[in-house]
Amino acid sequence: MEKANSSEPRSQDTDDVPRVRNLLLRSMCAVYLMAFVGFYCQAEGLYGDAGILPASRILANGTLKERLSLLQLGPFLGLGSGHEAIDLLCLVGATVAFLGLITRTHCRLISFILMWSVYFSLVQIAQSFRQQADHLLLEAGFLCILLAPTRLTDRRHPMEDIALLLLKWLVFRFMFASGSVKLASGCPLWWSLDGLKRHYETMPLPTSYSWYTYQLPDAFHRASTIYVYLSELVVPWLFFAPSKAVRRFALWWHVFLHLNIIGCGNYGFLSPLVLTLLLTLLDDGDGIVVWLHERISDEPRQSSRGKERNQLKIADGDRYGGRLVKVIALLMVAGSWLCFSIGSSDEGQLTFKPSFSRDQYLNFMQAMIRAAPLLVFVLMVRKFLKLLSSQDSVGSLADGMRQFSKNLGLLISTIVAFTVFFMSIVPHSRLLPSTSISSTVMTRAYGGLHSLYVVNQYGRHLSKMRPMRREIILEYSDDLNGTWHEYGFQYKPWTTERSSSLAYGWLYFPRFDFKFYDGSGSKIDAQKWMYPLIQRLLEHQRPVLDLLDGHHIPAQAPKYIRTSLYRFAYTSFADGDFWTRERLTDYFNVFSRDDTHLREKLKQMNFRQTVEPSGGSWNWLLRWLLDATRRFVGAIEGSYLLVGLFVAAGMVIYTQQQHQRTGQST
């Protein structure tokens, strides 16, 4: 009897494990790992002393905000501020992330503080190669600091519900912003429902899956565009539904969306990060959460009786959830049918046309933009009141001191949480000019948090679709009147050859290739990083050449380099290649090493034309270890390196599970 009674508390404790919190934090470690490894693989070519935009240039001459970085500690470690210090930060961050992924022992508060601080320091020197995914990761990572347990023995803590709500609000803001700007921009392609088909062709780094999807009928693409509108403008509101079944419906809807995004384009860790944030839609007792937690946790598995209790709780608490999901699905279909006037042509094909005007849409969006923060504020107040009512009573002086210490930390966390929420309303309100907050107090406070990337604005990247795909092609020659040869790229389209034109990066984020998408769609003067790139190519710097396709680079430094602008277009099934291309014009004039215009542009950027290793590099042993690690890792392509790390992590987790089962059986 005593043994049976003693097992009951353990069962209750097991049933009360914060599984969603643990899964989300372990998944965040996986996302951090993708980010650190991707940054590391390109750091020397982008930010080293011989790179395109050396970090030492920012750390020495940047503003106070730009110089706020852990890289300032490089000289104290004997590494200077070159790529070796960047390598050290990347490896430290990747190690902490890998350890947090494979075991909950290292998935704790100090780990998330360290990962956020390190990645913030790296993003500080990213300069022109900084992307939206970096902002989203830093904002989500900061909120995970509020969520992560302080000690290994911690179960639930009072801030958990508020932190999870803020993460849910973040993914809502990201998705809603991505959808609201499409029609609000007035782009004719989005209004004619042809925007998604054009996006397959003009996205930054498309894949072969994108090409095959592009070949589908126009009716499919227009229906898919409606699906995207529903995903970004309607389904995010279901994130806050009280019904568990409705939230699961919203989760799987977005899982399907983001798996397709991962297949279509090389966006790196962006979609995995959004999928991680979507875990906030689940509850600890959901079957998929219990199953996943048992596969990665080193805790005892939940008993069959505990699973039955969870299923009964879910069934009792959400008795009408299934019916509600069906009603919502029917309303979404009916609403889409009415809003987009779905019909058929004389040839029997589906036709689509919005039945509302842009002014009507903008008026509706104004109401939605104002309503969202109010909804989340009400939910936060409810959770805060619940937090207050759950506080323990004080029984003695010692208990009082402990309670005061606990409440002091809780007070600070609560103030931080509500501050982040109120400041996030500022970028959310800027989705439309008519709803933008004009308060100087709010905007200045937001600017302060935004400078740390704690709160950011999203949704600007797809406001207007490009009418055609334009690509910047780098060419070199030793004779102005001779033959010009092209530099090859690893991920971005540059050739019509089928084997090299649509590469998969999977979870790896190729910043260098991605940046050319921004360059091809903007004015020349806006892409100042191109001048240092040309200078490094004229110098034949190996770190920069490693960013390119090694099979299509010159054997020695060329005398001349030019950049050409090409128009790329998808082919059809009847053609043998993925692309057709046509040269449009020169992007830059021809440059040589003694070109006056090039020197003037580099001088304006405070760019050193001679490569000088950063000072303070006296720690030869650490430098040797870092260089040896880079030589070893440099031989592995970034996407394969990530796959190998995740396979290794899976094997470690599986081995831990086997040891646990063996221990339980004995």
Radius of gyration based on Cα positions: 27 Å
Q: Could you say which overall geometry the principal axes of the C-alpha atoms support?
A: globular
Total of helices: 26
Low-confidence stretches: 1-14
- What separation lies between the terminal Cα atoms? 22 Å
With strands numbered from the N-terminus, the spatial order across the biggest sheet is 4-3-5-6
Structural class: mainly alpha
**Percent of residues in β-strands:** 5-15%
What number is the mean pLDDT? 87
Main sheet attributes: strand count, strand direction, barrel closure: 4 strands, antiparallel
Number of strands: 6
Amount of helix? 55-70%
Tags for this model:
mainly alpha; 26 helices; 666 residues; four-stranded antiparallel sheet; 6 strands
Describe the 3D structure.
The chain is mainly alpha-helical and 666 residues long. Helices cover 59% and strands 6% of the residues. It is built from 26 helices and 6 strands. The strands form 2 sheets. A 4-stranded antiparallel beta sheet has the order 4-3-5-6. Strands 1-2 form a two-stranded antiparallel ribbon. α2 runs antiparallel to α4, α2 runs antiparallel to α26 and α17 runs antiparallel to α18. The radius of gyration is 27 Å and the shape is globular.
Layout of strands and helices, then pairs:
Blueprint: H1 2-15, H2 19-47, H3 55-61, H4 83-102, H5 109-124, H6 132-147, H7 160-184, H8 188-191, H9 195-202, H10 208-214, H11 218-234, H12 244-264, H13 270-277, H14 287-296, H15 304-317, H16 321-339, E1 343-344, E2 350-351, H17 358-389, H18 397-429, H19 440-450, E3 469-477, E4 485-486, H20 498-501, H21 511-520, H22 530-539, H23 542-545, E5 560-570, E6 579-591, H24 596-604, H25 620-634, H26 638-665
Antiparallel strand pairs: 1-2, 3-4, 3-5, 5-6
